[in-house]
Fold this sequence. Notes:
101 residues; mainly alpha; SMc04008-like fold; 6 helices; DUF1244 domain-containing protein; SMc04008-like_domain; SMc04008-like_sf
Amino acid sequence: MTTLTREQQTELEAAAFRHLVVHLRERSDVQNIDLMNLAGFCRNCLSNWYREAAEEAGLPVSKDESREMIYGIPYEDWKNLHQKEASPVQKAAFEQNKPKD
């Protein structure tokens, strides 16, 4: 692989992150619980990581602000529009696979 400067690496990582966020916004049919069960993270995880990065940089970003950055709309609006009740199978899989604190 080509040797990248730190700035180039950051720019590429940011572009990949933006692409992931757009992809997740477009795939509102994919539920967070499905993401958690398959990949171990979801949109809320991304919003938490975004907020934590902002805090580390000394930038005040609220939970609601970071969620809106990921979802593209206020979280409550997204839930009302797209979130479905998890099935018993999804809930059982989550209990088996959820991250251990």
